[in-house]
Amino acid sequence: MKVVVWAVVAAAWLLVSATPSSARGPYGSITVGNWKGGAFTNDKDGAFTHCSAGTVYQSGIYFVVAITANGSWRLGFAHESWHLTPGEAFPLALTFDGQPAINVYGMPFGTQLVNVEMPVTSNLINQFRKAHQMTAFAQGQLFQFNLNQTAQLLPALLNCVVSVKKNGVANAGEFAVAAKPAAAPPQQAAPSSPQKQAKSGTGTGFVVSSSGHIVTNHHVINGCSEITGNLSGEAPVKLRLVSGDETNDLALLQAPAPFKDVAKIRQNPIPVGNAVVAIGYPYHGLLTSDFTVTTGIVSSLSGILNDTRFLQISAAVQPGNSGGPLFDLGGSVVGVVAAKLDAVTVARATGTIPENINFAIKTGALRDFLDNSAVQYQTAEWRDSTKRETPEIAKDARGYTLLIACKVNEQAAGKRGDTK
Q1: CB neighbour list of residue 127: distance below 8 Å, 6 or more residues apart
Q2: DSSP state of 306
Q3: Distance from CA of residue 163 to its chain's centroid?
Q4: CB 84 within 8 A of CB 139
């Protein structure tokens, strides 16, 4: 099977070129879950052509994802028993996690390989990135695929292209890179007994309803056996998990009693270039026990690979900021701080250190999440007259921005399989 797989990998050159030449590679490596690949060049002239990674399913289908040197995305399906007619396109319906089907066309390149274009601005790439399962229906046949870590795979492929174009294939290394959650690393607590240990981590949350509902990131509370929260200077209280959205990295908690103050969520979108304020509890226990305030701007209205669920911001965030509120200058929430780009990994891959590249979940996704959870929240419209100074925004935020602490016992940690 390995010989067949690598033969298909070489044939995947046909995904990105109309010429009859073959590919040489992989140079460097892409290792994300079961996905394996790297960079490829034209066998004739040595020019860099594309980066791709693929995996084999029990059905014998080899599934490959590729991005060309000019940034075009493709999906490829191959099987050694197929007998396709090259150049004759056919309709193909792709379904992700039971959502409505996306109708595309498959183009056979050779008798065993089918190519599907995946425009970077399409719904197809957004669905593919976040889905857990995919089905493909074509020519009366239905194929099923369990998708594994595609949210990490696409950034790795993009990083491969950027790195190779800058440094050449001779300097290719491991290209896997992903956004790093801005949650505090778990710390081992004192064992309560020789048989049982506990781990903990911290993040940030903010109150969104008069009934004591609190929003944070899903990765902050994922796998926690106990969740607590407290305003700065106050005693922690136990919080219960009401609902979670792993795809959009949002979680809804509730305190046993309401809070006096509640955040307001901005109703109209914030434009690119506008100033923002991020508030959270980074490195709690190592730095200050109070929350910190940082400022910046909205650098882009999309995240990695044009993911429109996110804002890219220049306001500095650190481990522990995850789940915290991002404000406009009127003091309204415009996003939920979610992640920062992993500077060390990017530096190793590209030779440069990224600066001020952080991400927040937009309020559109937040409002949808709260609506689906039947939470009554307050909104606000931006007006120039509402502009305030940063100290005023921070003063108000003190009444509804919480330190979120997660405790994971040894048994739960084993089931969870990872840490924040």
Answers
A1: 94, 96, 97, 99, 102
A2: G
A3: 20
A4: no
Query: Do 6 and 18 touch, CB atoms closer than 8 A?
Result: no
Place of tokens 């929260």: 229
CA distance 43 to 23: 5
Characterize the bridge pairing of strands 325-327 and 310-313: unpaired
Q: What is the token pair recorded at 169?
A: 């294939």
Closest CA to 261 of 331, 210, 335, 326: 210
- What is the mean pLDDT of the segment spanning 355-382? 91
CA 369 to chain centre: 17
Give the torsion through C-alpha atoms of 368, 373, 376, 379, to 10 deg: -20
pLDDT classification of 404: cutoffs 50, 70, 90: very high
Contact 11, 82 (CB under 8 A): no
| Residue from 372, 363, 306 nearest 123 by CA | 306
Spatial CA neighbour of 52 closest among 68, 65, 35: 65
CA distance linking residue 218 with residue 252, whole number of Å: 8
Q: Scanning the structure block, which residue is given the tokens 């700065």?
A: 232
Q: Which amino acid is at 309?
A: R
Which residues in 301-411 belong to E strands, given as ranges? 310-313, 325-327, 333-341, 358-362, 378-380, 401-409
The 10s digit of each residue's pLDDT in 372-392 is 999 999 999 887 767 899 999
